[in-house]
Amino acid sequence: MKKLEITQEHVTDVIERLKNKKAAGPDLLTPEIFKEIGKSEICLKTITQCFNNEMTSKNKPKEWKESRTKLIPKKKTDRKRFQTNFLTNISYKLFMSIIKDEIENHLKINHLIKENQMGFTKGGRKEDNIFILQYLVEKAFTSKEKKTLVLITVDYSKAYDSIDREKMIEALIEYKIHPHIIDNIIKLYSGDYTKIRFGEQEKRIDITSGIKQGCTLSTTLFKIVTYMIIKELEKEEEDTKLMTLH
């Protein structure tokens, strides 16, 4: 298996894509700091070398397995409802952005992108699925053959939390994602945890299930899992046409 080589150009690209004025992770290093670091050729070479070392290392930085959970009240009048923000280190986000790009490129060049899954897909537009839906409705009700049309809507509750991690890895293997990438994901998902602060107190919570919150790779992982669901449904009913709306 060919070794994955992270280039300095790729590192520069993911740094430039960082959004300013975003909260830092537990190490308190902000996107702006990394953008300043990225202006130095020596620093860029060092980061690139570190990322390449991490791609094949047996142990992952413990700092990359930690996140901070920030609870923000959704409404000032309702203190029981919170918006949850998960803060991870920017260095971790950069590394996972590179992995995300590698996976997305693999899906594209191997024609593995499912066109009936528009969610989390570059260039995917909900307007396309709405057009298809309108066409199917018109065809079902105007066809002389009296076609049967069945529409099902699914509202995922706590979508990321509901994903079985073993099934997620099986999906990555099924789609022939590079073994080094799968190995990195397994190791970074092993022993991950978050810390929540309540006033002066802080509590650590170990995470053993679900897709990581606050991770740049999560949308792609979730998408691949939905690919597997669609694939299984297509096996059940060969004559069924599937489409998804997001």
Automatic annotation (TrEMBL):
**Organism's domain of life?**
Eukaryota
Tell me where in this chain the Reverse transcriptase domain is found.
Answer: 53-246
Q: Give GO terms for biological process.
A: DNA biosynthetic process
Recorded hits in Pfam families, A to Z, give: RVT_1 (PF00078)
PROSITE patterns (alphabetical): RT_POL
Q: Which residues form a coiled coil?
A: none
- Annotated PANTHER family: REVERSE TRANSCRIPTASES
Q: What is the name listed in the Swiss-Prot or TrEMBL entry for this protein?
A: Reverse transcriptase domain-containing protein
Species name: Meganyctiphanes norvegica (Northern krill)
Upper classification of the source organism reads:
Eukaryota, Metazoa, Ecdysozoa, Arthropoda, Crustacea
